[in-house]
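Input sequence (115 aa), recorded before submission:
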Amino acid sequence: MQVDCAQHKTLAEGRWAEMPLSLQMLNIGSEISRANRWKAKGNQNQVERAIFRALELIDLTIEVQRGKHCLKEFSRMREAICDHYLGENAYNTTGEQIQRDFDIFFSEKEENSDK
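Predicted structure, token format:
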């Protein structure tokens, strides 16, 4: 599958670095959610498109969070996502398990918007 390397061009140009980590995680989680919905519909092409966008955002996060947060966790997250959606699922994860890692940021955003 041919994918444009910079799906999120404006984010890659610096806007991503200005976002707080929680908002970065929300954006990644949105792509994971899209991938899960497409997977449930059996559309692997759209799953891959959403996952490639999520991976691009993870890579941007690793780049801008370098020295601030544990990069090991971001790298493991990337590995687990690749394994589940694009690989052989050697870790036996589910899309729901992966989505749960991001759901906390959705809950946090809703709590903050109520204030």
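Checked by second reader. Helices lie at 9-18, 21-40, 44-65, 71-86, 95-113.
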